[in-house]
Amino acid sequence: MRTKRMIRVAAAAAAAGSLLVACSGAGGSSSSGGGGKSINVLMVGNPQMEDIQKLTKSTFTKDTGIKVKFTVLPENELRDKVTQDVATQAGQYDVATVGAYEIPIWQKNGWLHELSSYADKDTSFDKADLLKPMVTSLSGSDGKLYALPFYGESSMLMYNKDVMKAKGITVPEHPTWQQIADIAAKVDGAEPGMKGICLRGLAGWGELGAPLTTMVNTFGGTWFTKDWKAQVNSPAFKKATNFYVNLVKQHGEAGAPQAGFTECLNALSQKKVAMWYDATSAAGSLEDPASSKIAGHVGYAYAPTVETKSSGWLWAWAWAMPKTTKNADAASKFMLWASSKKYENLVGEKLGWARVPAGKRASTYEIPQYQKAAASFGDITLKSIEGADPANPGVQPRPTVGVQYVAIPEFQDLGTKVTQEISAAIAGKTSVDKALDDGQKLAEDVAKNYQ
């Protein structure tokens, strides 16, 4: 029943975006049929994915003869499209970027190729080099890999060091959320048009929902208790959400209800905000002088806390192969290349070592050039990933694993609907209390499936 519900949710969610997807050039199934000389890849439009677009033709295609047709979508649209395609067995794509949330659910439903056999056969891939949290999060119940990590991440605070120095502020390496709120108030307006902090306000379980849920965890809240009692309007959940919404409304970025990862990255790199709490993977872009006005002047701190020792999330954008592909061999070659040490070195040599898609391999942090380029953020990134605890991210037992999500099919719809209301609260169109009371009813309906 849960599989059927997920398909219905996916189909409905993707319907509204179908026109945009159709115009993006995906072009249906692979033009090569079973020949494997051309594959369709669907991926999220993050900086690391933009880099692989630039490098594929002159390297991978040149070496293998395999043409790669990319379809790139914003995060929310990507989630809708890939879920629809995989859940309905449409077979439009040979490879897709998915996250740690989807893998165990989709593996259980039989929608994905296992990839351990491909990784084991390719000795140069060195599967043993992958960080254990990444392997665990991308493995199925049978212990096999069902996705290969492109990059891994936790979350951290990033800030403009020049602004802090001018204001005489020292940002703690392990700050509390109250300390960050106090700093945001002091640096708001530090430069013309600059706001204190950027926090995602764009609705979506993986957009606003990701940083918000880490805040809920450390404030003592949770979506569900271990025995599946909904907690969306509990005191701790409300306290965290009010803190988040008030911080954004008082000292956050302009246009916050439409601001996701990409908008916040731009806001900090272009000196429109003084701080940003988000994915550790953003550091490479912030340190790129070609696109960032504060490259070399960025400070980093661990994810802010309240009641927990740590609060960073755990995520991997990874390459998965739907079982519907007719080009498994070609698709696997692309995935192994895109997750390899060879590809990391290619990015470092061609585009700069700070832009390496890190967070997935232990050896990355031993490369001298990368150590130098990532001196300001590499250690915090690695320790945040290793310190994340998906099984116990808060102050109480959880019914499933997951730091910034609940690992059930229904959460994709639940998290998106609740964050739509919270985004509306940021916009001043509703109250946090009403948003969470409505969310509680939705969460109670979901909980009935598991009680």
UniProtKB/TrEMBL annotation:
> Sorted alphabetically, which keywords does the UniProt record give?
Signal
Q: Name one Pfam family in it.
A: SBP_bac_1
What top-level branch of life does the organism fall under? Bacteria
Question: What is the annotated signal peptide range for this record?
Answer: 1-26
Cite the SUPFAM superfamilies for this sequence.
Periplasmic binding protein-like II
Tell me what this protein is called.
Answer: ABC transporter substrate-binding protein
